[in-house]
Design brief:
The structure holds two protein chains of two kinds.
Chain A: H1 5-18, H2 30-37, E1 39-45, E2 53-54, E3 60-61, H3 63-75, E4 78-84, H4 89-94, E5 100-102, H5 109-112, E6 115-131, E7 147-150, H6 153-161, E8 169-172, H7 175-183, E9 189-193, H8 194-203, E10 207-223, H9 227-242, H10 245-254
Parallel strand pairs in A: 1-4, 1-5, 7-8, 7-9
Antiparallel strand pairs in A: 2-3, 5-10, 6-9, 6-10
Helix pairs in contact in A: 2-9
Chain B: H1 3-18, H2 43-50, E1 52-57, E2 66-67, E3 73-74, H3 76-88, E4 91-96, H4 102-107, E5 113-114, H5 122-125, E6 128-130, E7 135-144, E8 159-163, H6 168-175, E9 181-185, H7 188-196, E10 202-206, H8 207-216, E11 222-233, E12 236-238, H9 242-257, H10 260-269
Parallel strand pairs in B: 1-4, 1-5, 8-9, 8-10
Antiparallel strand pairs in B: 2-3, 5-12, 6-12, 7-10, 7-11
C-alpha cells in the first residue's frame, strides 16, 4: 500500500457524501479505478530519443517516463509503463490497454475529438533537416523536394498548414528510417520534432537542422468521459509547473522551455 | 520529490479529481430560470456522427457578428466558428440567433455551440458551460473631455444616449442616477452620432468603437470617462458536455498559441489581443 494512503482513503471515504449533492457531477469512476488498482498504467511511445528510450535492463528512461513517475507519485500509486509503437497510441488507449498515454500524438483539435487532452506536457518544434551541402532557409525552397516526415495525422496536418504539398511528403515509421532516407538521398529533406532531429544529427553528422515550423505540444491523453482522472492530472501538472519541477525536467531533457498555457 | 511535496500534490490532485465542484463542476448545474435544458446525450458524439457542427451566432453585433459587403455572415465570432468547424473537419451550419435567445437556443438544442459574444456574467455562467475566454469587452460612458464625469452622479441632468440593441444597455441603464436623461437609440452607431450632433451629452459605447473613432477622426475630442462594465466572452456549450467543452478549450489554446485568435482579433478590432487573453 502506498505510504500516503491515509489521506487518500480519507478522501475516498468522503466521496459518496461529496457526490450526493443534486447539482453535482457524478464521479465517472476513472480516478477511483486507478486508485483502487494502486497503479496507473501509462502508455509511452518509445523511439530511442530523449523523450523515451529503453535501457539494457528493459526499463524506460527519458522525459516521459520521468514525468510518468512523478504523476504516479502525485496520485500515490505505482507507475506501470506500457511501451507503444509509433501510430498505436490512440488505438491502444481506446482499447483500454493503459489509463493515460504520454506523447505519441501532436495536440490538436482533431485529436481532441477522439481523446481528452491534459495540460501540455511537452513542447517541441518541427525542424527541417537537410544534408549540410543542401542549404534551405524557407518553406518555398522545399516545394521541389521530396520531404520525409514521421507517420501520424498530426504531422501531416501540421505540414499541410505550413504550406507543404501532401503529394511530396513521404512518411516514415521511425526516425532511423527517415535518417537513412535522408543520408542515402531518397529524400532531400526531412521534417521531424526537435528531439528526433537531435537524435538524427547525433548519428548522422552530415545532416543539419535548417529552420523550424512553429511550436507544437504533446499532452497526456485519456479516453473521452474520464474527466475525474483528467482533472487530477491537470492539478498535478499545474503544481509541477508552479513549483518549477515540470519546466526543470523539460529543460533538462530538451534544453528548451515548456511555456504553453493549458486547456483547463 | 519530498514526501511533504508528494503528499500535498496527492491531496490537491485528488481534490481536483474527486470533488464534484472542480474545474468543470459548474458545467453540471441545472438551468436556472427561463428555458429548461433539453436532454441531448453526448453532443460531441452526435456532432461527429452527423458531420455537421451547428454554431449559434448573433449577426446583429458587428464586429463580432454581422455581414460582409456581399451579404455573407462575417465577424470575429463567425471567423472563430469557421476555424473550429474546419479544424474538426465538419460542415458548419450557422444558426442565426437574436441577442436574447442565445442561451435559450443552446438549452433547447437548436445549436451545438455558441459563438455569439455571450458575456461571461452571473446570469449566463449558471446556465451554460463557457470555454476559456478569448475576448473582452468594455463599455463606457463617453463624452467630450470638457465634460468631466467623476461618477454616475455627474450624469444628473445629462442626456445619455444608449442603444437598446446592445448588451451594454441594461448595465448602463441600471447605473443611471435619478435625474439622468436616457435617450434610447435603435442602433449602437446612433448613440455616438447623437453625441457628435450634440443631441446627447454622453453616449454609452464600447472601448473599441471609441478607438476606431479616434483613428478615423483624431480631431474629435470624445473620451471614455466612466466605465460601465467589462466582461469576457468565449465559446459556450450546454451544461453537462465535458467532452465537448474540453475540445473547445483545446481548440482555443491551440489557436491562441499559434496566433490564429490574435489574427482574428486584429482583423476585426484593428488592435492586438488584450494581454490577459494571450496564450503565450
Amino acid at each position: 500500500m502506498p505510504t500516503n494512503s491515509l489521506p487518500r482513503r480519507g478522501l475516498m471515504a468522503a466521496l459518496p457524501l461529496l457526490a450526493a449533492g443534486p447539482a453535482q457531477a457524478a464521479p465517472d469512476g476513472s480516478l477511483r479505478r486507478v486508485l483502487d488498482a494502486g497503479v496507473i498504467r501509462l502508455g509511452v511511445q518509445v523511439e530511442e530519443t530523449m523523450a523515451a528510450r529503453r535501457i539494457a535492463d528493459g526499463s524506460l528512461r527519458g522525459y516521459l517516463p520521468e514525468l510518468g513517475r512523478r504523476i504516479a507519485a502525485g496520485l500515490g500509486v505505482g507507475a506501470e509503463f506500457v511501451p507503444v509503437s509509433r501510430g498505436d497510441m490512440l488505438g491502444l488507449l481506446l482499447q483500454g490497454q493503459f489509463d493515460v498515454g504520454l506523447g505519441g500524438a501532436i495536440a490538436s483539435t482533431w485529436l481532441a475529438q477522439n481523446l481528452l487532452l491534459s495540460e501540455p506536457i511537452m513542447q517541441f518544434q518541427l525542424v527541417v533537416l537537410t544534408p549540410r551541402n543542401r542549404v534551405v532557409s524557407g518553406m518555398t525552397e522545399l516545394r521541389d523536394m521530396r520531404v520525409g516526415v514521421l507517420e501520424g495525422h498530426g504531422f501531416v496536418e501540421a505540414l499541410r498548414e505550413a504550406g507543404l504539398e501532401e503529394a511530396r511528403i513521404v512518411t516514415h515509421a521511425t526516425w532511423q528510417e527517415a535518417a537513412a532516407a535522408l543520408t542515402q538521398g531518397a529524400q532531400q529533406a526531412v521534417i521531424l520534432p526537435t528531439h528526433h532531429a537531435r537524435a538524427i544529427t547525433h548519428v548522422a553528422p552530415q545532416v543539419t537542422p535548417r529552420f523550424g515550423l512553429g511550436e507544437f505540444w504533446h499532452c497526456a491523453l485519456l479516453r473521452l468521459g474520464e474527466h475525474d482522472l483528467l482533472r487530477a492530472l491537470d492539478v498535478l501538472l499545474y503544481l509541477l509547473r508552479q513549483e518549477g519541477e515540470l519546466p526543470a525536467l523539460h529543460r533538462a531533457f530538451f534544453d528548451r522551455h515548456l511555456n504553453a498555457r493549458g486547456a483547463q | 520529490m519530498s514526501p511533504h511535496l508528494a503528499r500535498r500534490r496527492h491531496l490537491l490532485a485528488l481534490a481536483g479529481g474527486l470533488l464534484p465542484w472542480g474545474v468543470q463542476g459548474s458545467a453540471q448545474g441545472g438551468a436556472q430560470g427561463g428555458a429548461q435544458a433539453v436532454p441531448v446525450g453526448n453532443v460531441l458524439r452526435r456532432v461527429l456522427e452527423l458531420g455537421v457542427l451547428r454554431v449559434g451566432v448573433w449577426l446583429d453585433a458587428p464586429p463580432w457578428g454581422g455581414f460582409d459587403a456581399d451579404g455573407r455572415p462575417d465577424g470575429s465570432e463567425i471567423a472563430i466558428a469557421r476555424l473550429l468547424a474546419r479544424e474538426m473537419g465538419l460542415r458548419l451550419q450557422l444558426v442565426r440567433l437574436g441577442q436574447a435567445e442565445r442561451v435559450t437556443a443552446l438549452l433547447e438544442d437548436r445549436c451545438d455551440v455558441l459563438a455569439a459574444a455571450l458575456p461571461m456574467v452571473a446570469s449566463t455562467i449558471s446556465r451554460v458551460a463557457f470555454s476559456m475566454p478569448y475576448g473582452r469587452v468594455t463599455t463606457v460612458f463617453a463624452a467630450p473631455s470638457g465634460l468631466r464625469l467623476g461618477s454616475t452622479a455627474d450624469l444628473v441632468g445629462k442626456r445619455v444616449a444608449m442603444s437598446a440593441d446592445t448588451a451594454a444597455f441594461e448595465m448602463a441603464h441600471a447605473r443611471m442616477p435619478p435625474g439622468g436623461i436616457t435617450l434610447f437609440m435603435l442602433r449602437l452607431a446612433d448613440a455616438m452620432e447623437a453625441l457628435l450632433l450634440g443631441v446627447a451629452d454622453v453616449a454609452v459605447t464600447y472601448d473599441w468603437q471609441l478607438r476606431d473613432l479616434r483613428l478615423a477622426r483624431p480631431d474629435l475630442d470624445i473620451r471614455p470617462q466612466l466605465p460601465v462594465q467589462s466582461w469576457s466572452h468565449g465559446l459556450a456549450a450546454a451544461l453537462g458536455q465535458p467532452d465537448l467543452l474540453r475540445l473547445l478549450n483545446v481548440f482555443i489554446v491551440m489557436r491562441g498559441a499559434d496566433g490564429s485568435l490574435a489574427d482574428i482579433h486584429a482583423r476585426y478590432f484593428s488592435a492586438p489581443l488584450p494581454d490577459m487573453l494571450r496564450f503565450r
